[in-house]
Amino acid sequence: MGAGAFLGLRLFDDAGIPMEDAEEFLRVGLHMPSEVAVPHLIAVHQAGSAEVARFARADREPLVARLDQVNGGFARPLRFEVFEAPDADLFEVSSAVFDPGRAAPEMGQFRGAFRVPGWRRWVNSTTVFFALLGAVTVYFLR
């Protein structure tokens, strides 16, 4: 992605994870400044050449974001979606990317997977840890 590109991620309301966990994880993982995070949408501003976007929310529909660009002087609506993968803690992300540095707006696709920390994974790892600890303890106490 070129200079000035935005990457948006929207987690659906019924994703089953605390939004704060997802926002914090994605912000750290993608090196996002905190001021670009808004409820149900996370935008990555990779260069300093454009204003923070103004976003409109649409419940249970792909979010339409209007990026009012300073560099280039034009605005372009983008759609962002997040799809849940078979793994309960894994989300596959598909988003439109807009680079205002080009003469004409170019729409592209970014696809990736992000493991979101949630209570289910914590419970699973904790359960496995204590099960192994118990097995080792029983083995040595015989």
Number of helices: 2
Content-based structural category? alpha+beta
Shape: elongated
Percent strand: 25-35%
Helicity level: 10-25%
Counting structural domains, the number is: 1
Q: What's the count of strands?
A: 8
Radius of gyration: 20 Å
- SSE succession: EHEEEEEEEH
Biggest β-sheet, characterized?
A: 5 strands, antiparallel
**Order of adjacent strands in the largest pleated sheet:** 4-5-6-7-8
The mean pLDDT is 42
State the separation between the terminal residues, measured CA to CA. 60 Å
Low-confidence stretches: 1-122
Concise description?
By secondary structure, the protein is α+β, with helices and mostly antiparallel strands.
List keywords for this structure.
single chain; 142 residues; alpha+beta; 5-stranded antiparallel beta sheet; 8 strands; 33% strand; elongated; disordered N terminus; transmembrane; membrane; transmembrane helix
